[in-house]
Amino acid sequence: MSETSSKPLSPLTARLQKHAKEAGIVLPESVTRKIVDLTRTMRLSDEDIRGIVNEVTTRFQKVTVDPHESVGIIAAQSIGEPGTQMTLRTFHYAGVAEMNVTLGLPRLIEIVDARRSPSTPTMTVYVDKGIREDRRKVQDIALKIELTTLPNVASIGSVVERMKVIVHPDSGLMETRGVTRDVLYEAITEHLGGKKGFSVTNGSGSGEERVIEVSLKEDANEETPYRRLMEAADELRGVKISGLTGITRALIRKEDSGEYVIYTEGSNLAEVLKVPGVDRQRTTTNSIFEIYSVLGIEAARGAIIDEANRTLSEQGLNVDIRHIMLVADVMTNEGTIQAIGRHGISGRKSSVLARAAFEITAAHLLRAAITGEVDELKGVAENIIVGQPITIGTGAVKTIYQPQSHKKED
């Protein structure tokens, strides 16, 4: 028994279902739930509920799809036609001038092509209820998320004659990033100290800006010490001090509701959800494949719908959500994310002629001829190609008239 069916029905839900049953109407559970939510605080008589059920049923029946309707073609038209009016520019993200994100037609193409990683991956990170209006605490979470490497808090220089790489910590940058010199020293020691031929020591200076020296140990057999020194300097530039891999920037913005939200350049959903204080239910990323790998295929389907709908809405293009939902369903109904193209859904159609009509015509026809593939002409494209009525609308119904035979009277 499912969880929903085991729970007792509320009185209002029970009354709604009773009147719907009396009228011979079957309302979807989601519609019933929405009616209950909207009318929970109202005092409704049986007559009122009966009227609501009848009105909702009338409207619900108007928007249902007719049998044999060509929903795929209509969805393609509904999304494709507004798509011709979309711009190709990159827009400022969420009103934050310092960050850009790909929107418009390039973003829509990324979604339907099921690109494994978007060209500008971003995250919207919400924080828990108790701290979402405290900028200082939100800033602490942002510092835990944003990746800090050695060049972000120190300058790196090489002294060739002494065969050393000198790291000059910057106290101002370290304070901004919440990093201490001890953390810096430990990170460098952990990264290079254990490698053969290098030693990490404290150099001249005082306080937080005391330099750190990485020395190349003398080796009589060393043929290219200068090259080893340059490699050490390059390795130091990649030393991770704090934060999460993939999150290059984390900016805080105060929303109209008064809460602070963290917007990031780069994405690492799995690790961000582990950070204490992050609201796991609302935090999201524009990388659909990350959502799929972390939260599953149903979450990925929801992400495709949200991202496509937002991309169209931001340009003032209104597309019925059901068309976008159909695209998301087709892309995810096999349990993985498939592209709409020759490498995905269109390339896996059972009809040879439908595949040939899409792309690389000769290759599809040649392969089908060699393997003896049969096309049963069940779809739309293949019937149009051969000039037959297509099996949608009235074309899906075959009417046969058999006249009644009359015996001659003797």
> What is the tally of helical segments?
18
Q: What summary fits the major beta sheet? A: 4 strands, antiparallel
Radius of gyration: 32 Å
Shape: flat
Q: Overall pLDDT, averaged?
A: 81
In spatial order, strands of the major sheet run 10-11-3-12
CATH class of one domain: Alpha Beta
Q: Helix and strand string, N-terminal first? A: HHHHHEEHEHEHEEHHEEHEEEHEHHHHHH
Q: Name the structural class.
A: alpha+beta
Strand content: 5-15%
DSSP summary, beta strand count? 12
Cα end-to-end separation:
69 Å
Poorly predicted regions: 1-6
CATH topology of one domain: Gyrase A, domain 2
- Per CATH, the architecture of one domain is 2-Layer Sandwich
The helix content, as a percent range, equals 40-55%
Q: Which structural traits does this protein have?
A:
single chain, 410 residues, alpha+beta, Gyrase A, domain 2, DNA polymerase, domain 1, 4-stranded antiparallel sheet
Structural features, described:
With 410 residues, this protein is of the alpha+beta class. Among the domains are: 3-63; 148-242, Gyrase A, domain 2, CATH 3.30.1360; 349-396, DNA polymerase, domain 1, CATH 1.10.150.390. The chain contains 18 helices and twelve strands. Strands 10-11-3-12 form a four-stranded antiparallel sheet. Helix 2 (11-22) crosses helix 4 and helix 14 (297-313) runs antiparallel to helix 15 (321-332). The radius of gyration is 32 Å and the shape is flat.
